Amino acid sequence: MHAIxxxxxxxxxxxxxxxxxxxxxxxxxASRGIMTRxxxxxxxxxxxxxxxxxxxxxxxxxxIATGGLxxxxxxxxxxxxxxxxxxxxxxxEASAAAIGEYFxxxxxxxPPRNLIQAKHPAGCAMLPNSCGTAPGLQVKFNxxxxxxxxxxxxxxxxxxxxxxxxxLDELAASQPALRRTILTQKINxxxxxxxxxxxxxxxxxxRQRNPLVGTTVADGLVSVRIRSEFxxxxxxxxxxxxxxxxxxxxLGAVVIGRDSQTLPAALVDVLIAKKAxxxxxxxxxxGLVAKFxxxxxxxxxxxxxxxxxxxxxxxxxxxxxxxxxxIEHGAVSEPVAKAMAAGALERSGADLAxxxxxxxxxxxxxxxxxxxxxxxxxxxxxxxxxxxxDARLFLLPGDREQVRDRAAKCALQMLRFHAMxxxxxxxxxxxxx
Amino acid sequence: MHAIxxxxxxxxxxxxxxxxxxxxxxxxxASRGIMTRxxxxxxxxxxxxxxxxxxxxxxxxxxIATGGLxxxxxxxxxxxxxxxxxxxxxxxEASAAAIGEYFxxxxxxxPPRNLIQAKHPAGCAMLPNSCGTAPGLQVKFNxxxxxxxxxxxxxxxxxxxxxxxxxLDELAASQPALRRTILTQKINxxxxxxxxxxxxxxxxxxRQRNPLVGTTVADGLVSVRIRSEFxxxxxxxxxxxxxxxxxxxxLGAVVIGRDSQTLPAALVDVLIAKKAxxxxxxxxxxGLVAKFxxxxxxxxxxxxxxxxxxxxxxxxxxxxxxxxxxIEHGAVSEPVAKAMAAGALERSGADLAxxxxxxxxxxxxxxxxxxxxxxxxxxxxxxxxxxxxDARLFLLPGDREQVRDRAAKCALQMLRFHAMxxxxxxxxxxxxx
Lengths: 433, 433
Prior knowledge:
The structure is a homodimer of 433-residue chains.
Chain A: E1 2-8, H1 10-13, H2 21-30, E2 35-42, H3 46-59, E3 62-66, H4 77-85, E4 89-91, H5 93-105, E5 119-121, E6 125-127, E7 136-141, E8 144-149, H6 153-174, E9 181-190, H7 194-201, E10 212-218, E11 221-230, H8 233-251, E12 255-258, H9 263-274, E13 278-282, H10 288-295, E14 303-308, H11 312-319, H12 323-329, H13 334-348, E15 352-358, E16 373-381, E17 387-395, H14 400-420
Parallel strand pairs in A: 1-2, 1-3, 3-8, 13-14, 13-15
Antiparallel strand pairs in A: 4-5, 6-7, 7-8, 9-11, 9-12, 10-11, 15-16, 16-17
């Protein structure tokens, strides 16, 4: 069973918006053994959308088209579907009432232009939209079952769960021959290069192997992707687990976790397990480490808080970093990073604190401290309440955004290693001082 | 002239990674009048990649394939191109030396597997990679000029500038008939809904109009997209400017700026112009406002720093918020937001400070203060150095990530309005207290 995904919108064809819906849909379909043959993007052009729908309806069993159901004049998908099918647009009274109610609930008058969203090509079923005003559409046309959903990701996701998934469940139940189980898992690492990951994985990466193992680099993380494909779902799962566990064992402490597990979530998990609270003192990362930690729901029990001491006076007045230290060594230096961490530890009452100071660029670099130079210090309570600090130097590649992102992730991984009782030197990118 | 973009990688077909390269390439090509007909994604499967290259080489004048040039066994694009062309892979000695040098410069031994990156299908030119080890490939095959680049975005972007763009320049110079100028501009707004934007734009959104005007919603921002297409480049530019200026005039203060201008960058611009420094006191946004501001290069001159007072003790000990206030009104309340802003203003010495406290979810909501309840307060120096504070209540939709993102953006837009001398009530989403 093959699918085609059509993403509709000028902003996609012109590259003004990145199409995230196709990846999400492909992942959802792949997990059920349905392979997506094409992602195609189409402009807000009624004849082009109609032509694409006609073509896709002959090429695939399942067509999911997203976008072009909004209330404005550049939303043309429902009109194009009517053209492709050779039918007229008709108004659905129940949908018109539902749209009116959506606005009434929010105490707003319905803009008249929203009424177009109650129309559909004759013969289509309308799909309820649980988080917006545009209903979706469903129709069997040529070889394919066609679903049309809004392009707003949250509305698409809800409609997939509510209407598309139940259809696929029913289909799989009635045609077991269609089913082949494809299970995937991703193992995410931070602090090791792609070639080194491949060396450690060795023969697990053989292309003839099932489960199949590959690697991908994104945002400084190297991820190991595992794909297990078998007729028997239990076999697919046990083989997947076996390969994933073996890969994780070979990679060691740099493994953050599986699938969508993020580095901040992995850190929060360890902190919760160890009942340890952290605080942050940030300069070049400007709040990014705190932001990453508080992205995680439930982080409030392990995150005391943080300081963004961008100006030197703030480092001194708020964290007690002696101004002489800053003058003597510079704001980007080992002693200042350590003093920031120690100040944050003392003032927050946390068990563990991190201090980060560096040159994120694009300006500010010198020969001795080029852009990408970042000091990360950890402060923690040793025996008798005295604070111990330790620091590492990083020379990070990339532009301002990349340097800040990697610096924040190095800080998170160092905090995680410390909380786990693993040496921070396992983070190979750090230069020991 | 038409292009096809092929994105190669299991992670794309399985939806584990979002394809951002296609959007970037489409935008780069569109700005030169080259329309991308298809984005196609293909798995790490040698025959499938070969078949896609063969098909695309007959359908388009320009084919750009990204991904599958890495050093591991799942990188198969160069082998597939050799298959498609019916030629052998040969080693390029200059590339082998360059790859060895890349590792030598970084003080590391070259992993033997990286040598595959020095191979290319006979007859292809190799394209230098200025920020990685994998050279690209270029070859005229069937109707198309084919470029193959690495999938790592930074390497693709550099290779496009270095090798693909000069080829397109030369082509346009030799075949003026191919040239048709398509210019685009995006006007970004924050704080107004899509239907309201459409009402204000009125007849500018007529689909017969050139320049063509559409709207898109992403990350809480409504963007107006303008596309101007003429033979004469000067006419295309003047018509684009005219429509863009008229649209911006109709929309007013909610307009952040054009194209890639972000809300934080717009705020930093205003602060620089007004010589005003800001400080941040964040609870539910956990550092996100500070992160947004310091994303902007050059923000150090207008950003004093900030506090992430996640725990109530931190609000009290670091910002001087009276604990009785927190007990009486709750941490998410107007008085606490105001006290946070006032504390940050006083302690930082900045001209303007923002305090944010709210319920980001998923837990923590109550009937009186549901998830999405956020108070944003501004503190600024009035005459005689006394601080004045003002606060607004927001009821923000969405999940934890969305509530935090929108709350941070509301804070940035309120800071921007205040610095511009515009009433913060222009931010229509705020509920006046």
